[in-house]
Amino acid sequence: MSTLEQVAHRAGCSIATASRVLNSNGPVSDEMVRRVRRAAAELRYRASGRLPTTARRRPIIGVLIPSITNPVFAASLSGIQNRMLLAGHSVLIAQSNYDPAQEVDAVASLLQERPTGLLLTVCDPEKSLALSAALPPTVLLGNMPTARFAAAVATNNFLAGKELTEHLLLRGHRRILFISGHFGSSDRARLRYQGHLKAMEEAGLAPFDALQIPFIDSYDQLDLHPISILQPTAIIASNDLLALGVMGQLRRMGLSIPRDVSVAGFDGIAIGRMMDPQLTTVEIPDATMGGVAASLLLDMAENAAAPRHVTAAFRLRCGGTVRDINAPA
Q1: Would you say residue 5 lies in a domain?
Q2: What span, in angstroms and rounded, lies between the C-alpha atoms of 83 and 76?
């Protein structure tokens, strides 16, 4: 059975440094982390931990998501848990409620359980204070990679926003309103809006400012009074749950979809296919992304693999909630 001293010798570092890496309890360079974890993997080293063998638990992966009630993140968790089950790992889940301040506490709570690694969906990876601490191997899920956290599994939300807007433009829509949760709570929503702006710019059209609302408030009482002023022919919601809330509120206002206002969203959640008419949306493979992120994290944590960025493909699904204005009546 290999020892910590043997791991440190193979990695070319002190025993204290090897211990910090394997226990994620101190500052160590990224290069040294990879060297120590590679040495541990080659020697099949497993820390004995502080618990007796009879009480020892399965290794844990920590997962942070914005909301446990959103079907998008439920799908991601399904992919993560299926992969971790095969690997013999438990999954510990925390949520931030789309609040950057809560992210810090949530990640701190996960770290108390000494996880093998972390899968994190944060509000904004460039600003998140949760990412400023010393962390075990970490993969961003849904967020774009950063200079420090190069491991990420995400779709191209900018391009998705651009293509969905182009879909509406091709059908004659020029007055398109983008409704979203606060951009400070989701870089995914912000990138989708930026893609929308790019499509409008290329079409030579002046876009509306985005209508931003809290993500976690109830969507059954949305305040959509701006539409009476702006009179959009189409609304893009930054996710499908919000799009469904918009549709409900439009109907309560006496408006027909898509005759009076077209609506489209992002994510491709199952309930959108059950609506009448079916929701036009950009499908994103959230369950697949969760499984891929889990595999990447295991490869980094157990085999000292280099972090990498994986881009997941999206697909536009045309439903009946978008009207072709160009078509003859």
Answers
A1: yes
A2: 11
Lowest mean pLDDT among 41-50, 134-143, 153-162, 256-265: 41-50
Q: What pLDDT shows up at residue 103?
A: 94
CATH number of residue 40's parent domain:
1.10.260.40
**What's the pTM?**
0.83
Cα separation, 90 vs 230, in Å, equals 50
Residue ending a domain, choose from 268, 284, 300 = 284
DSSP, residue by residue, 140-191: EESSPP-SS---EEEE-HHHHHHHHHHHHHHTT---EEEEEE-GGG-HHHHH
Phi and psi at 65, nearest 5°, equal: -130, 160
Residue span of the structural domain in which 197 resides: 157-284
Token representation of residue 143: 């967020």
In this structure, the answer to whether residues 47 and 163 fall within a common structural domain is no
Which tops the pLDDT comparison, 5 or 217?
5
What whole-number distance in Å separates Cα of residue 177 and Cα of residue 231?
9
